[in-house]
Write a structure and sequence with these properties.
mainly alpha, Neurolysin, domain 3, 2 domains, three-stranded mixed beta sheet, 2% strand, binds zinc ion
């Protein structure tokens, strides 16, 4: 006899499959789509999105959920995910959802033009509209609770602003202190010269395999912005090249490989089910960041990488592996979050987290946002923002309504710090392996203890299970302070 649970799962599996198709269309648009296809593609994506939306709202899902019972932990987890999505879709009035979709798709273009012209005032009325709609949505979802917390659930189920605020409040002063000390010390040499772009791509593909990325179920292409797309047996990444900055290509690739390996390594039994995707943005970012930073920027791994770079590019002016390690980890002033070093990256995120909470709470107006940004930036970084494209206009997120998203970047870094501490205990000779370009014990530990589970556990729970302790900011801070004290002789 087919049960309500079986019917619900069969229906959900088709929705998941269609969601994967929509994602692949998005990948295609950023990589290989002919330029003249843009308008047709927009219509194709719109058609697919409306099918997906109708399936998520389908009244049969509500009926099945009312009758279905989970017989084991996996079934219970499936039902938890499906119920959460269905409840979310049901709480938001249809006209508000439609207005949000329309406004945010238009807002992105207006933001891009305002950024190109360094004109915040040209973007402000649109941002006000997006903010207003998301505040309405947050209120509808919160049902009397805190709207910002409700928005956070889209990216990090179970997280609250209060808990993140406590974590970030403990990070900020020690990061500011560390950046002041580091920037007061003599700086390591920067990389100079030019680096063949096809050699960068060849090296990046090799490094992707070194980090366990399965090329038979993935591929690496070039795009303007690096990203990872898809789940299960078709997980693709993009990277980019800059002739003067091969680290951009190499570390973007390692970062995206962390995201992609997570998706590839989820239990095959969960394929095309709600458990077959990474469980949250924060946990996802923990994987990309531990691959990129704690492993990829370690002294041991950069020693191996140095040899690979000499092989790929010849003598590039840094012959000592210790000097190369310092160059890779060089702390530098800058306005742009995505180009920030490990010490300053989270300060960029914390600034956005505080400002967007005030925007959602209604205690900061969009008309005062640029000034609030510039004041806070100078307080944290010690110098003034020179133009809006280097400040309040630099990120796309708010234009497309992603309030609540930024926090997951720093949460991911905190989780990566915890996982790294546990990994070091589990694999005592990690450095010897990384020094030989062998990441298999590290990536295997992450696969078996975290990635395999997909959506089975709640985000914080899966981290705690892997680490064996409740996650907090302590391990990340200890790691950063020790690492940069070593490099800068503090
Ligand atoms: Zn990422």
């Amino acid at each position: 006899m087919t049960t309500a649970y079986d019917e619900l799962m069969a229906f959900t599996r088709e929705t998941e499959a269609l969601g994967q198709v929509a994602g692949r269309l998005g990948w295609d648009q950023e990589t290989t789509m002919p330029r003249g296809a843009a308008a047709q593609r927009a219509e194709e994506m719109g058609a697919l999105e409306s099918v997906l939306h109708a399936r998520r709202m389908d009244p049969r899902v509500g009926d099945w959920l009312a009758k279905a019972e989970g017989s084991d932990d996996e079934a219970k987890a499936h039902l938890r995910h499906i119920r959460r999505d269905f409840d979310r879709a049901s709480k938001v009035p249809a006209d508000l959802a439609a207005e949000l979709a329309r406004t945010t798709s238009m807002a992105q273009g207006i933001w891009a033009e305002a950024r190109a012209n360094d004109d915040f005032a040209a973007f402000a009325p649109t941002l006000e509209r997006v903010l207003d709609l998301r505040r309405q949505e947050g209120a509808a979802l919160a049902n009397g609770g805190d709207p910002y917390d409700a928005l956070l659930q889209d990216y990090e189920p179970g997280a609250t602003a209060a808990e993140l605020d406590a974590m970030f409040g403990a990070l900020r002063p020690r990061l500011v202190e560390l950046r002041d000390k580091v920037l007061g010390a003599p700086a390591p040499a920067a990389l100079s010269g030019t680096f063949d772009e096809s050699a960068q791509m060849r090296l990046s593909r090799q490094i992707a395999k070194t980090f366990g990325y399965d090329m038979s179920r993935g591929r690496v292409d070039k795009a303007v912005h690096p990203f990872s797309s898809g789940s299960g047996n078709d997980v693709r990444i993009t990277t980019r090249t800059n002739p003067e900055d091969p680290f951009n290509c190499i570390y973007s690739t390692i970062h995206e490989v962390g995201h992609a390996a997570y998706e590839q390594n989820i239990d095959q039994a969960y394929l095309l089910t709600p458990l077959g995707r990474g469980v949250s943005m924060g946990v996802h970012e923990s994987q990309s960041r531990i691959y990129e930073n704690q492993l990829g920027r370690s002294r041991a791994f950069t020693g191996w990488l140095h040899g690979q770079m000499v092989e790929a590019f010849g003598d590039f002016g840094i012959s000592d592996p210790d000097a190369f390690y310092a160059t890779v980890n060089r702390v530098h002033n800058g306005y742009i979050r995505t180009e920030a070093d490990e010490v300053q990256y989270n300060l960029h995120v914390l600034l956005r987290f505080d400002l967007e909470r005030r925007l959602i709470a209604g205690t900061l107006d969009v008309s005062d946002l640029e000034e609030a940004w510039n004041t806070r930036f100078e307080a944290d970084f010690g110098y003034a923002v020179d133009k809006p494209s280097n400040g309040v206009l630099q990120d796309v997120h708010w234009s497309v309504g992603l309030f609540g998203y930024f926090a997951t970047y720093s949460l991911g870094n905190v989780y990566a710090g915890c996982l790294h501490e546990a990994l070091r205990k589990a694999v005592p000779d990690l450095d010897a392996q990384l020094a030989a370009g062998d990441t298999s014990a590290a990536t295997g530990w992450l696969r078996d203890n975290l990635q395999l589970h997909g959506g089975l556990y709640e985000p914080r729970e899966v981290i705690e299970r892997a680490c064996g302790f409740a996650p907090d900011e302590g391990p990340l801070l200890a790691y950063l302070e020790a690492k940069f004290a070593g490099i800068y002789g503090l």
